[in-house]
Amino acid sequence: MRRKLYFLLPDVAHCKKLVNDLQNVSIKESEIHVIARDDIPLEGLNKASELEKTEFVHGVEIGAGVGGVAGMLAGLLAIVFPPAGVILGGGAVIFATTLVGASFGTLLSGLIARDIPNHELEKFQDAILKGSILLVLNIATQQVDEITKLIKKTHPEADIGIVSAKMTS
């Protein structure tokens, strides 16, 4: 299981120092993402991708689930009330309609969710617009206490935001 930690930093220099300190304690660059205003140069820092800044992943997950259930129900209805003169094989129809429904739901919700800003980042938008840098860590749950203590000790200027659960391994 992994957790996301959010830290607001006053400027790029503090952010680079903190990233360097994190890499010195074995945090990989792929686990560190930085978000700032477009006019702030972030050379040498791992900028957050659109996947981290939008609800795309969440939307795809929801779409696959809802589409799969809708497809399965459509398959069940087709078996219970078959079109006139058509004989349907139960398992194959349900499997096919579930797969089609999940695929359609994934595609549609992904297209919609790619334009929706990540709701976890809304709390930080005002600070980012004022010039602060948001550092996002996606680390293993067992590292949370160690990393939080390190940052509080070595970077008191860092404003620790929210900690949210992410159910990935």
In brief:
The protein has 169 residues and is α+β, with helices and mostly antiparallel strands. It is 49% helix and 17% strand.
Termini separation: 5 Å
Helix fraction by DSSP (H/I, runs of at least 4): 40-55%
CATH class of the largest domain: Alpha Beta
Number of self-contained structural domains: 2
> What name does the CATH topology of the largest domain carry?
Alpha-Beta Plaits
* Poorly predicted tracts of residues: none
Total strand segments: 4
Radius of gyration: 22 Å
Strand order of the largest sheet: 2-3-1-4
Coarse morphology: elongated
The chain-level mean pLDDT equals 84
CATH architecture name of the largest domain: 2-Layer Sandwich
> Given the structure, what is the number of helices?
6
Largest sheet properties: 4 strands, antiparallel
Task: Note the beta-strand portion.
Answer: 15-25%
Please describe the topology of this protein:
Elements: E1 2-9, H1 12-24, E2 32-35, H2 50-53, H3 56-80, H4 90-113, H5 125-129, E3 133-140, H6 144-154, E4 159-166
Antiparallel strand pairs: 1-3, 1-4, 2-3
Helix pairs in contact: 3-4
Task: Please characterize this protein's 3D structure.
By secondary structure, this protein is an alpha+beta fold. The protein folds into two domains: 2-52 and 119-166, Alpha-Beta Plaits (2-Layer Sandwich); 56-113, no CATH class. Helix content is 49%, strand content 17%. The chain has six helices and four strands; from the N terminus they run E-H-E-H-H-H-H-E-H-E. The chain has helices at 12-24, 50-53, 56-80, 90-113, 125-129, 144-154; strands at residues 2-9, 32-35, 133-140, 159-166. Strands 2-3-1-4 form a four-stranded antiparallel beta sheet. Helix 3 (56-80) runs antiparallel to helix 4. The longest helix has 25 residues, at 56-80. The N and C termini lie close together (5 Å). 23% of the residues are buried. The model has no long low-confidence stretch (mean pLDDT 84).
